[in-house]
Structure formats: C-alpha cells, structure tokens
C-alpha cells in the first residue's frame, strides 16, 4: 500500500511503546503522527493540565481525520475516538511485557519529576497510573476481542513485528 491514504491507529497500555512505534512509522512512512494526549489535554497553563472541552477536542480530532494519511496514537478507547478505529486502515495494538511497561513508566516518572516537564508528576500520580494501566489492559483486551475491526488489527510485540508491518506496507 502506498503512503497515500494510509491511516494507522496505534493503541496500547501506558509505557507499551506507542510513541516509540509511531515515531518510527512516521519517519519511515513520512506521515505525521498525532498523540491523542495533545488533543485530550489542554496544557496551555504553565504548571497544570486540564481536559479540553469536548467541542474543542472533537473539532481538533475531526480535522485531523480529514487528512489523507495519518498516524494517531493514544490509549483512548472511548466514544470520542471510536471513529479513529473505523477510519484506520490498520490498528496496531502494542503488547509489551508488563515488567517492561512498569520499568518504562518508572523511568518516565523520574524524568518528568526531575526535569522541567510540566506539570510535575507526583508519586501519587505514578501510583494511580500503575493501577489504571493494570485495569486498562483488561479493557483493551476486551475491546480487541469485542469489536468489528479484527481484519484491521495487527499485534506488535517485538521490533521484528514492527519491521514485518513496515515490509507489508512496501
């Protein structure tokens, strides 16, 4: 498949490697990547982030979906993102060993805690993210097994899987 009209939705637990995967695909395919966090959250306030209102969020997402090609990555499996799955040519589900995920989340916490990242993350934030990611994995597994997109889903567990997907596109 040519990169024209190529739409890829990437989903996975926090720390699974969604951003890493989307950056590789973006570079290799020359397609812009959109992180759904940048649409969901308003980070314009210096030390805080709040949820964008749904009108702003939906408008921004819908305008991205009008593009011929895109890579959209994020954890969101809620009604406001359902059309990203139906519009996508491929849905990449990133499945990483849970200990690798927890290590990455721990590393990310420390980087954000001790750099100029805003807002600062607290230990409570980190604890909540770990708890949430445990439940999220169950929700993601349920979503994968109970939808009409099975012909679009490709599971990525290793770098080899990602390379095989890139070969599929060429």
Provide a descriptive summary of the structure in words.
The longest helix is centred in the last third of the chain and has 23 residues, at 123-145. Strand 3 and strand 4 form a beta hairpin. The protein has 170 residues and is α/β, with parallel strands linked by helices. The strands form two sheets. A five-stranded parallel beta sheet has the order 2-5-1-6-7, with helices on both faces. A two-stranded antiparallel ribbon has the order 3-4. The radius of gyration is 16 Å and the shape is globular. Helix content is 49%, strand content 15%.
Strand arrangement in the largest pleated sheet: 2-5-1-6-7
Which residues sit in consecutive blocks of at least 5 with pLDDT less than 50? none
Roughly how many Å apart are the termini?
6 Å
Helix content: 40-55%
Number of strands: 7
**Radius of gyration over alpha carbons?**
16 Å
Largest sheet: 5 strands, parallel
Structural class: alpha/beta
Average pLDDT, rounded to a whole number, is: 88
Please, how many helices? 7
Strand content: 15-25%
Q: Give the overall form.
A: globular
Strand and helix order:
EHEHEEHEHEHHEH
């Amino acid at each position: 498949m040519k990169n024209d009209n190529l739409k890829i939705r990437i989903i996975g637990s926090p720390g699974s490697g969604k951003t890493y995967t989307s950056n590789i695909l973006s570079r290799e395919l020359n397609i812009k990547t959109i992180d759904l966090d940048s649409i969901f959250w308003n980070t314009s306030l210096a030390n805080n982030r709040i949820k964008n209102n749904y009108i702003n969020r939906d408008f921004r997402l819908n305008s991205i979906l009008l593009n011929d090609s895109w890579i959209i990555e994020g954890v969101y499996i809620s009604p406001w993102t359902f059309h990203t799955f139906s519009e996508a040519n491929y849905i990449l589900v990133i499945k990483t060993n849970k200990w690798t995920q927890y290590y990455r989340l721990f590393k990310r916490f420390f980087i954000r805690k001790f750099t100029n990242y805003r807002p600062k993350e607290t230990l409570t934030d980190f604890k909540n993210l770990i708890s949430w990611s445990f439940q999220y994995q169950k929700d993601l597994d349920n979503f994968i097994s109970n939808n009409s997109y099975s012909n679009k889903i490709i599971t990525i567990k290793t770098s080899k899987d990602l390379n095989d997907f890139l070969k599929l596109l060429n």
